[in-house]
Every structure is written in C-alpha cells, then in structure tokens.
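PROTEIN DESIGN WORKSHEET
SECTION A - STRUCTURE
LENGTH: 232
TOKENS:
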C-alpha cells in the first residue's frame, strides 16, 4: 500500500467517525430536557427547588433526534426526593431514556437545640429553626416554634434532630381526680359548679367530670387549666 493510499484510508476512517459522532444524540441535551421538566414540575408547588440530575452513562449511544425531545413523568408534580424523568424521541428513530433526578427543597424546620427527654415540656431554649431538605423528612416537620412551645415530647430526641408532629403531645391541663370548675352555659346564663375530673385531658379535648353536688357524670370540653365547659 502506497503512502497516498494509506493517507486516504486514514482520512476515510476519520470522516466516518466524525459523521457517526454528528448523528449521535448529545447526552447533555437529554439531561437538560429532564432538568427543565423537573424544575417546572417542582416550581408548581415549591419556591426555589433544587434539581440534581444524575449523569447518564457516557457509553449510551442514541441516534440524534430530528424532533424536539419530549420529557414526561408518571409521578405527581409535587414529588420530592428521588424521581425518574423520561425523555422521548419520535424521529427518525423512536427511543426513550429515563433520567434519575433528585428534587430538594430547603426550609427552616424545628429541631432540638439540645438533648431532650421524654415527657419534657418544651420551652424557647429547647428548640430552634434550622434549614433542612424537607424531601428527606418522611415523618413530617414543623416550621414555627409556636407550634411546639408548651407541648410535651412523647420520646427523647438528640440535639439537632427534627421534631415531627407525631413526636409531640399536648400538655394535660386537667388530671384525673383533680378538683375542677364545671361551667354550664345556657344562652347568656352561666352557672359554675365544683366537679372532679374522671380522666386526663388537654386543651380542647372532651373529658368526663362528676358534679360534686349531684354526683352526676357529664361530659364537657377543657376550656382552660382546671376549667371544663358544658352546654345545658
């Protein structure tokens, strides 16, 4: 083989690879289509979402799409955490690629400012707000300290742990056997009587109370500490 022939062969191989490269779909465009779709979905429910796209395998070879890429998802738009976005091409060859993405939304949530014990009544020095990715908080979260102050913990929490709603219990302000004021209302008339609580109860809960005079058991609503209101 002459030098000229060898040169022509090398040029032909180079041009063939160049043409093949030009006909391949850039993976970055697929990732970008998935990113835009995920952002638009998340922005429908959240402010300032962060989208992390997992890079596609660079060994993936797809024919270049001659029509606009179509992104879609089977999950709802407000899904946080790990999602999968499909990207489809319709021509000249149909193909579909699924791109893993993660949706993060940072919010200030209530966390323990120090180690907290079970049944502890929470005060201002026990809690604080700290930014967290709410997509990772599967048990829920609270966003204001006002939702927590005065309530009790059902179980202990280490410093920095998130306080989910189910970790809290309202303080019992009426105790079984405690002497309470029973307030009975009928229109504008109000009668106050002494009574004995038959069970523990928190603010706004129903509780059974024995009237000290009639010995009759009635059911009322806890109105304040030591006060139960019933309707006549």
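SECTION B - SEQUENCE
RESIDUE ASSIGNMENT:
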């Amino acid at each position: 083989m002459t030098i000229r022939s060898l040169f022509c062969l090398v040029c032909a191989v180079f041009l063939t690879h160049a043409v093949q490269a030009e006909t391949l779909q850039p993976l970055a465009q697929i990732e970008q289509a998935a990113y835009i779709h995920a952002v638009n979905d998340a922005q429908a429910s959240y402010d300032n979402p962060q989208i992390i796209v997992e890079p596609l395998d660079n060994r993936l070879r797809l024919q270049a799409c001659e029509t606009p890429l179509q992104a879609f998802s089977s999950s709802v738009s407000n899904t946080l955490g790990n999602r999968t976005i499909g990207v489809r091409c319709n021509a000249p060859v149909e193909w579909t690629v699924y791109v893993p993405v993660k949706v993060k939304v940072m919010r200030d949530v209530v966390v323990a400012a120090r180690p907290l014990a079970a049944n502890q009544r929470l005060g201002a020095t026990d809690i604080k707000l700290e930014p967290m990715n709410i997509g990772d908080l599967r048990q829920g979260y609270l966003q204001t300290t006002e939702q927590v102050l005065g309530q009790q913990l059902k179980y202990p929490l280490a410093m920095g742990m998130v306080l989910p709603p189910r970790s809290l219990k309202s303080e019992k302000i009426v105790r079984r056997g405690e002497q309470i004021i029973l307030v009975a209302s009928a229109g504008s008339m109000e009668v106050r009587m002494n009574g004995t609580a038959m069970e523990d109860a928190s603010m706004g809960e129903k509780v059974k109370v024995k009237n000290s005079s009639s010995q009759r058991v009635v059911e009322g609503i806890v109105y304040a500490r030591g006060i139960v209101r019933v309707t006549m």
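SECTION C - NOTES
Confidence is low (pLDDT under 50) at residues 1-20.
The CA atoms of residues 107 and 131 lie 5 Å apart.
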